């Protein structure tokens, strides 16, 4: 069963500007680790930001667990977003807060506004945060400030924060581009292990094709806003890659 | 023979044309420069500035200070009533700056385009309000409130609040507009509402800068507080006005001296505090 259905999605940054996505359709199944590959400027980040409406698509439809994402009002959208974990290229941690506060901030959508402003989190949340930090190997860095950590460690905090949301879908926006090749592999392995463990489907932007092939079971290839390839990883042939990367934009 | 010369080939390569400012831009640029220079010359000519008079001011200022204002009447500023007015001034500046800063935090948030809770309504309203408060001088606020509320500290505090809002609101908004949007995006992506985005995504990034601006606001509010009394809005300004009117030059000198000392002390304290804050994490 498809958990995420995207139909004929079009998007542009301004009403008069060029169209970034020119009608993309695909489906993510329950146990997918789904990769989006393509050259810079193909629309990978735009696509992933349309799923949780950080960017408003201009037309098309997105269905998550049967809910039409594009029809939600602000409040419903916030409720939906707390079930979608997101991991970013530049980590997007709150640098001046501790690792623990960063991980706890993953619960923001669930706790009341006043409690969150005063940073009062339930004991269950605190226990879960400590457990997740242990799972990603940061048990010794709980009270450090986020900006004291190395890149790989920061991304682990990002992973723990996304998992605090108890997500039904994980969106990964180039999670490894800011990391070196060895750490990149470790981080992707970690995400894959946890996603399998918690049975969370993953939609992942990635420009490292080799890494995508190693970790993902399905791949779509974008080029200049069009979908050029869609299928299981094994069926991605050299010819497909050459087609996807044939016309470099930007 | 340089290296690059070899690249261009042995033969005489065609001469390439390049200028920093292309035709229409170059016309505007030089036109504007010419206009500015001409206006300066015209203004100086119109004002008919007499250089010899200008150079003489220091001599005459020295004369004035030595003959009329010296010695300052120190006994006068040691008087209990006057000391009371100094304390009143400090209280007024404190309250005005405090209320102003509290209002400015929200106003600055609403007036920052990138994170404003409502770009269509709150943003323009907050912008106009900040502009309004800014465009009116603190003395005019003081006159306005004295007219409405009568003499005393209250109109002074309100005038200083307005002044502080105008001063800090715009600076806060600008500081907030310059933040890194990644954190904001992350909080939005996990379903945070506007207040949570502000508290988690914005405040940690601007805390130090806002504290610095707040201290600076106190600094200018204190200086403004010393003169709003001129129109009866409380504080030591009233004493200044009375003695100026009565040509009590020695007392005026003493009052000016006390303002000078207080401003210097406040300047030192705020410089120290800003320095302390900028080192804090």
Q: Rg of chain B to the nearest angstrom?
A: 27 Å
Shape descriptor of chain A: globular
Q: Counting H and I runs of at least 4 residues, what is the number of helices of chain A?
A: 9
Order of helices and strands of chain B: HHHHHHHHHHHHH
The poorly predicted ranges of chain A are none
Largest interface, by Cβ-Cβ below 8 angstroms: which chains and how many residues each? Answer: A-B, 32 and 20 residues
- For the record, the CATH class of chain B is Mainly Alpha
**Strand-pairing-aware structural class of chain A:** alpha/beta
Question: How would you state the average pLDDT of chain B, rounded?
Answer: 88
Outline of chain B, from the CA principal axes?
A: extended
Oligomer: heterodimer
* Portion of residues within helices of chain A: 25-40%
Question: How do the strands of the widest beta sheet of chain A line up side by side?
Answer: 6-7-8-3-9-10
CATH architecture designation of chain B: Orthogonal Bundle
Would you mind describing this structure in some detail?
The complex is a heterodimer of chains A (250) and B (281). In chain A, 34% of the residues lie in helices and 24% in strands. Chain A is built from 9 helices and 10 strands. Chain A is globular and about 50 Å long. Chain B has one domain (80-279): MetI-like fold (Orthogonal Bundle), CATH 1.10.3720. Chains A and B meet through helix 2, strand 6 and helix 4 of A and helix 10 and helix 11 of B.
Write the layout of secondary structure elements.
The complex is a heterodimer of chains A (250) and B (281).
Chain A (H helix, E strand, L loop, with lengths): L1 E11 L6 E11 L3 E5 L6 H8 L7 E6 L2 E2 L5 H8 L2 E4 L11 H6 L8 H5 L5 H13 L15 H14 L4 E5 L7 H18 L3 E4 L3 H7 L2 E6 L2 E7 L5 H7 L6
Parallel strand pairs in A: 3-8, 3-9, 6-7, 7-8
Antiparallel strand pairs in A: 1-2, 1-4, 4-5, 9-10
Helix pairs in contact in A: 5-6, 6-7
Chain B lengths: L2 H5 L15 H25 L3 H5 L1 H13 L4 H4 L2 H31 L11 H14 L2 H12 L3 H25 L3 H9 L4 H35 L8 H9 L3 H31 L2
